[in-house]
């Protein structure tokens, strides 16, 4: 079965005529156009041989937005002779801004100049909220709810109805913009019979982004049906008759939540941990899971930021499904915490707006106290290190209660001449030391650049494979020790390079 909605149907136009002479005919889908809408102007040429129709960029000053061509051929008999008869239809789409006349066109057909008729168009004011249809086709849209809370899902269903006895040639469908919603098409197209009509349905799941009176824009379509028109000379030709369709514009009332919230729906929040006691620089793994009814489209997710603890996390896994009128969603994210002293994984809180009850409630995970065997005491200047799949953030926290001693206090009892002499000597010594320092600094920079490697990148690469070998685990521990300030450790660069190459990440290390 040919799919109707969501894609363009292209059917060949075949013509069966009794030939008397070539002809040219022009037509429009409607001579009365709502302001802002498009008109479909078609020219049909029938004959054994004809000049091609022009690729017009404008018609009477109006810009042509789209051109569609259909061609067909058939054998006909003239005076006992079989002749190949060709039919060409070109359709121009444009938006008239004011009342206008589409001029007549002339084309050479079968050795004779044929002329089409001029067509008058009338532009009228569009009626807000109304839909356009005819007795053969219609386009409609309906909502399963008329009033919802912000964050609550609603289903919009678009219906395209086609008379079963009509020969449909072409259809171009454009779904509503849904600019004020998170939107997703549900399932596939559904087709069924309804009296003399064939009905095609498409469903869309919508989550409003804001409260208030929200507009749902109309769906639109352009359709053409095959009709027979009497031509000059008394014979008939099959030509397309175009129509513009649109569904009505709808307004949805979106009610506000009673208070600020992080997530809307009916969810449960849980967490699980693999251990609460660990050796220094060994990971503690925790998994947080959020599941229930509602949308996670605008949920910002969960992160941890713990001083002096390195935190790794993968991207969250989010799944949603719509079944039996309910939107089910599932969020799961895993974290790894590494430290060399005792720490606490804090509780995470989410303010949930239950739109079924119209209330705010608090979801909360457990907090976990982690014992680190052989660990060190907490540092006086904690540094928070948060690793995600894409970045690493460091936020040093400085102790501002540092005793400030002015060097000039040591000279406050000296005479001015002695002070001046001392200052001159001091400046000279500082200049010499600065010159020596700069030379050494430049040499160190060159040497470091030559032999440098990115320890952080190496950590990100090797950490997931700690359990695969003793070599990887040993290397990760050394890299963490260096990150935590240990200066005596020397990395075996050949081994590091070998390990990185093994996991096909050569570009992250430069020997």
Oligomer description: single chain
Poorly predicted parts: 1-20, 378-419, 448-452, 505-511
Structural class: mainly beta
**Over the alpha carbons, how many angstroms does the gyration radius reach?**
38 Å
How many beta-strand elements? 33
Number of domains: 3
Give the fraction of residues assigned to helices: 10-25%
Which overall shape is indicated by the principal axes computed on the Cα atoms? elongated
Explained architecture:
The protein has 511 residues and is mainly β. The chain folds into three domains: 23-255, no CATH class; 263-396, Immunoglobulin-like (Sandwich); 414-508, no CATH class. Helices cover 13% and strands 45% of the residues. The strands form nine sheets. Strands 22, 24, 25, 26, 27, 32 and 33 form a seven-stranded mixed sheet that branches.
Features:
511 residues, mainly beta, Immunoglobulin-like, seven-stranded mixed sheet, 4 helices, 33 strands, disordered N terminus
Outline:
It is built from four helices and 33 strands. The chain has 511 residues and is mainly beta. Residues 1-20, 378-419, 448-452 and 505-511 have low confidence and may be disordered.
Please render the helix and strand layout as text.
Layout: E1 23-28, E2 32-34, E3 39-47, E4 58-59, E5 62-78, E6 81-94, E7 100-102, E8 106-109, E9 112-115, E10 119-124, E11 137-143, E12 147-149, E13 154-163, E14 168-174, E15 181-194, E16 197-208, E17 212-216, E18 220-230, E19 236-246, E20 250-255, E21 263-264, E22 266-273, E23 277-279, E24 284-293, E25 310-313, E26 317-323, E27 326-338, E28 343-345, E29 349-354, E30 359-364, E31 368-373, E32 383-387, E33 392-396, H1 416-451, H2 455-462, H3 470-483, H4 493-502
Parallel strand pairs: 2-10, 12-20, 21-29, 23-31, 25-32
Antiparallel strand pairs: 1-3, 3-6, 4-5, 5-6, 7-10, 8-9, 11-13, 13-16, 14-18, 15-16, 17-20, 18-19, 22-24, 24-27, 25-27, 26-27, 28-31, 29-30, 32-33
Helix pairs in contact: 2-3
